[in-house]
Automatic annotation (TrEMBL):
This is Nitrate/nitrite transport system substrate-binding protein. It comes from Sphingobium fontiphilum. InterPro entries: NrtA/CpmA_ABC-bd_dom. Keywords: Cell inner membrane, Cell membrane, Membrane, Transport. Pfam families: NMT1_2. It comes from the Bacteria.
Length: 474
């Protein structure tokens, strides 16, 4: 997290060329040679200075808390109220219903709403809030069953990353006893759901499929996943309802502190530099309030820079702010256990984790089309998108929801004023280069979503669909 970012410069491009327009007719679904153009917003007073923004009590809401507490919203002429929400559905409904002007959102939420998974609404994500920040925790009981078989390093501690293959004998044992093996995640279109599914499948365990109208996603599952709000994860596991979970901080560290569970892998070990949360707005809000939108993005960028400044010199102060009951409300020691450059897996096993929470470095704020497309590939892989879609569909949906043009307009205004360095803004077409920094070594290229899906032994591909009997290859 603390390394100086390098500028991504790649020559492939985006959607606007005639080739892409014609791609469904056989030209090939490829981005055009046009870089993303920033939206330039004229100066003047914001249209809506008084705003209410929602969030869930997680450390990755930090850019909003810091923008409020350090005066970055106020600098942009905004009077912002931050309001915690009970769960991700309540938060989403609040934005859609205009009770909230915008919110800290799961990266998959505005995509899912726009394509009509669950609730249908036109939402946009003009800025990413962070990279990484999640972990997978197992109950003490399950950890005790797998720990003896794990490879150990010279220090006697387990070698990381830990594969889900270690869970297979445990899952088989549960099955032999006629008991399902259950784990928790925070929402059906959350990064946590897809990271947990990815980890399980990479270890040879099927996390199950969704069918139309099915919100459980447990068809053909070796491991059954269910939704639990983040702050309730430790108590739900302690009660024995689930045997583990994937969640953001501080709720993995809470299990360590309470001595009820052991985090076994952080999400940067599942997919390095993965996108996590976004700032979500209604499309009509952006259209009616362009100056307000630009001001919000600028304030959040300033907060992100503050969070990652000078090798994390501000993180201790950030921890104190987040520990307040009106924000995350967890003990400062629990928040600090993952947010200050180290991550605690067990009592006595804290390891360097400089990149566990990234807010500004590595172009963390830029909303890449390729990130949006990855989420949609996972929706397709697990049956939330029931039928095969052409590559062009993924491109079009990504462009509709993720708005780097809005981000660039705000970021370049800050560069012009000397607030952020020029090399903190990527020179890109909106697509990251092909990436193989996944736990299974698979390569992801956002320009080839269907080819990406074809690589997996577990998951839908091609024209396959899901029935009550399992996967049907059409």
């Amino acid at each position: 997290m603390w390394d100086k970012r390098s500028v991504l410069k790649n020559g492939a491009a985006l959607f606007a060329s005639a080739c892409v327009v014609a791609s469904l007719g056989g030209c090939g679904s490829k981005p055009s040679d046009n870089a993303v153009a920033p939206v330039d917003i004229a100066g003047g007073a914001v249209e809506k200075p008084n705003l209410k923004l929602g969030f869930i009590k997680l450390t990755d809401m930090a850019p909003l808390a810091i923008a409020k507490e350090k005066g970055f919203f106020a600098e942009e002429g905004l009077n912002v109220t931050l309001e915690p929400q009970a769960n991700w559905k309540v938060l989403l409904d609040g934005v859609i219903g205009s009770q909230l002007d915008g919110a800290h959102m799961l990266a998959g939420q505005p995509i899912a709403a726009t394509i009509g998974l669950g609730t249908k609404a036109d939402l946009v994500a003009p800025i990413s809030l962070d990279l990484n920040g999640n972990a997978i925790t197992l109950s003490n009981k399950v950890w005790g069953m797998i720990a003896p078989s794990l490879p150990k390093g010279p220090d006697g501690k387990p070698v990381h990353p830990i594969s889900a293959a270690a869970l297979k004998p445990v899952v088989d044992s549960f099955k032999a006893q006629g008991k399902p093996f259950k784990m928790g995640m925070v929402f059906p279109v959350s990064t946590h759901n897809y990271e947990l599914r990815y980890w399980l499948a990479a270890g040879g365990l099927n996390p199950g499929y969704y069918m139309p109208g099915d919100v459980g996603g447990t068809t053909s599952a070796d491991v059954q996943l269910s939704v639990t709000p983040p702050p309730q994860m430790p108590a739900t596991m302690e009660a024995g309802t689930i045997e583990g979970y994937c969640v953001g901080e501080p709720w993995n560290q809470a299990a360590v502190q309470k001595k009820i569970g052991v985090p076994v892998i952080t999400d940067d070990e599942i997919w390095r530099l993965n996108p996590e949360k976004v700032f979500g707005l209604r499309k009509d809000f952006v259209e009616k309030n362009p100056k307000t939108t630009a001001a919000l993005i600028r304030a959040i960028i300033k907060a992100q820079q503050w969070l990652d400044a000078e090798n994390g010199k501000n993180r201790a102060e950030a921890v104190k702010i987040l520990s307040q009951p009106n924000y995350v409300g967890a003990d400062a020691k629990v928040i600090a256990a993952s947010m200050t450059g180290r991550f605690t897996f067990e009592q006595g096993d804290s390891r360097p984790a400089a990149d566990f929470n990234i807010f500004f470095n590595h172009f963390a704020g830029y909303p890449y089309y390729s990130d949006a497309i990855w989420y949609m590939t996972q929706m397709r892989r697990w049956g939330q998108i029931a039928d095969q879609k052409p590559d062009q569909w993924y491109f079009d949906m990504a462009k509709a929801v993720y708005r780097p043009d809005l981000y660039l307009g705000a970021a370049k205004a800050l560069v012009a004023k000397g607030v952020i360095p020029a090399d903190s803004v990527p020179d890109t077409d909106g697509f990251k280069p092909a990436d193989n920094k996944f736990i299974d070594g698979k390569t992801y290229d956002g320009r080839k979503p269907n080819a990406y899906l074809d690589q997996f032994a577990i998951g839908l591909k091609g024209k396959a669909t899901v029935t009550a009997a399992g996967v049907k290859a059409n």
